[in-house]
Amino acid sequence: MITDNVQEFADGENANFESVFVLSDFDSAAYSYLYKRENRVVGPPVVLYCATKGEPLQFSCRPLYCTTMLNLSLCFTGFRNKEEMKNLVNLVHHMGGTIRKDFSTKVTHLIAYSTRGEKYRLAVCMGTPILTPSWIHKAWERRDDVLFHAGDEAFRTEFKVPPFQDCVLSFLGFSEEEKSNMEERTLKHGGRHLEVGDERCTHMVVEENSVKELPFSSSNNIFIVKQEWFWGSIQMDARAGESIYLYEKPNDSPAMKKAVSLLSLTTPNSNRKRRRLRDTLAQLTKETEISPFPPPRKRPSAEHSIGSLLDISNTPETFILTKSSKPSKSSTPAHSKQSARWQVSKELYQTESNYVDILSTVLQLFKLPLEKEGQVGGPILAQEEMKTIFGSIPDIYDVHTRIKSDLEDLLRDWTENRSVGNVFLKYSKELVRAYPPFVNFFEMSKETIVRCEKSKPRFHAFLKINQAKPECGRQTLVELLIRPVQRLPSVALLLSDIKKHTSDDNPDKITLEKAIESLKEVMTHINEDKRKTEGQKQIFDVVYEVDGCPANLLSSHRSLVYRVETIALGDQPCDRGENVTLFLFNDCLEIARKRHKVINTFKSPLGQTRPPPPLKHITLMPLSQIRRVLDLQDTDDCVNAFALVVRPPTEQENLLFSFQLAAEETVKNTWLRTLCRHVANTICRADAEDLIQCTDPDSLQVSTKDMDSTLSKASRAIKKTSKKVTSCRQSALLFLSPAVTFTHHNLPTC
């Protein structure tokens, strides 16, 4: 029945039926009258809902206007205005929801005014949606929509509590570009930002890899956190707990401290200086010498052979300084020097091991977490995007894990006749199946990463978190995924090097040739349009510019990265004071010096004159031979200099190549970082930054003093002339009759 006077029915009692009042206005005097007398009151949407569902009228001990929040259980946190909270609780009850005082697993939504407190932390851990009070008000505005439900994800998403609500952030140690990006995202996710040191800041986000000291003493009123906290909050779409992300001052590794202490020690005795220099180079390169197997077994007599003062062991924790001693007369002569074939084979294993570690990082740090079910906030990427980005990486990882294991077994029981080539022939078919699908679609993979990073803030935050971890070595996911593109050409180069050091009567020589051919077959399956014609043109230019440049510099996978003009500061790889040009390629370093004198010009077959090459080839060095890059500190006697600690496979000792940058436009820091990045890529290491060591030039006996003086130039000219005279004298002796007697001053001059 319909009535305008509820009082005539509200006070009546009937044992046969219950009176249910349907009111369209829960703010009217009639509602207040019925509510005080505890009459059962519902709104029109409840009647329509039950009629649509064919269900009996919903029972509720409280007035029920609609079913907008039916089956929802809410909890409140951070409210200080009791009147506001009371109003919100009434609205929730009117829409069919329930309220719980304490947070538990039964709570479906947390209504928060603050990102602080235990309830907020529990909701984040349990993945419970955390919403603003506006969600309740907006749901009440749609109370007459019978089919609407406030729990619909599409509706409640816009009412999420942003992760940085109530947070005022400052940023320390970031580049201007990165800082601007983070400040923009702070505003986008509900926070504010101020400059470092402002007392209103609640958080200071620190770039832990570049900040060594804080500009002020820490305070209890501010959280000093690593950047992972910032990106983790965005990825979760909720403020992360600060306790596990607190910034701590980095400690220098004991090994580096020891290296620095060695660098600081000098002695006037030249022999001691030489030994000290060798010790220093050994310590600086020690951390890069990691191998799980011992060197080839030697006869007992070899242990008493004359050893080098510098002997780097194959364990990552120790290095041994052996004193020279004469071999026993009764001992059998033996070479203590490890064979070049073994050295390059060990290098192949080490790069393979590093490569497998990088593939494992891609899978464990990126692919598996993105595939994990039950992610807070739902899946970060769609399945199609996952497949496009990672492709056949699991297959590549599987085959290289087995190759690594076989190489390790081979080197543990090494003899010169063990076949390295067979290892790669064994897996050639699997390599053909695994590589082309990934390499051919790498550009699409890269484009997908870039697009998703721009359009999906949670994916951008996910990348920022994981790319900052040590396993990534500050490399992006794209940079890690390019390793499979580079790996096979690098392996082919190392196998060619092993073949070069393999005797003709060794059966592995033919096997290595077959293995190299099998890798070339894999690479032929890769689209030819991946070749960079411009990069090839640059290599041809280098070949024409450098007299004596090795023909094997020309390779389809190789590209020129950097050209640097320098002056040699030591006696390696050429005389001090020589003008040296360094050509950095993606996998090797061509070192050439300026020619002393151009004798003639070259003519082409057509008779056209071509200018002679201005440079003379010194050496083409694989980047894998560079053990450490030394950034020499500027002093009064040494300016704008750097050095390379090099270990060729034919050498038992480290060599030091030191240079001074000659061109003012070359930025030393940029050049050294680029060099280290490509060295790391070549040896499949992620920690490119660890290859750089800032060093005192005095400890390495390196100086740029008087490099431009007239006396210095004259001294170098005399040295060059002396070498030419010596060469001419040796040539003259070849034409003298054995019966002729001569004295030193009778030799012809040149």
UniProtKB/TrEMBL annotation:
Molecular-function annotations in GO: GTPase activator activity; guanyl-nucleotide exchange factor activity
InterPro entries documented for this protein: BRCT_dom, BRCT_dom_sf, DBL_dom_sf, DH_dom, Ect2, ECT2_BRCT0, ECT2_PH, GDS_CDC24_CS
Residue ranges annotated for the DH domain, each copy included: 340-529
Region of interest called Disordered, as start-end residue ranges on this chain: 283-303, 322-341
Protein name stated in the entry: Epithelial cell transforming 2
Domain BRCT, chain residue ranges per copy: 71-143, 159-247
Top-level taxonomy: Eukaryota, Metazoa, Chordata, Craniata, Vertebrata
Pfam families, per the entry: BRCT (PF00533), ECT2_BRCT0 (PF21243), ECT2_PH (PF21242), PTCB-BRCT (PF12738), RhoGEF (PF00621)
Compositionally biased intervals (Low complexity): 322-333
GO cellular component: cell cortex; nucleus
SUPFAM superfamilies the record matches: BRCT domain, DBL homology domain (DH-domain), PH domain-like
Biological processes per GO annotation: intracellular signal transduction; mitotic cytokinesis; nervous system development; regulation of cytokinesis, actomyosin contractile ring assembly
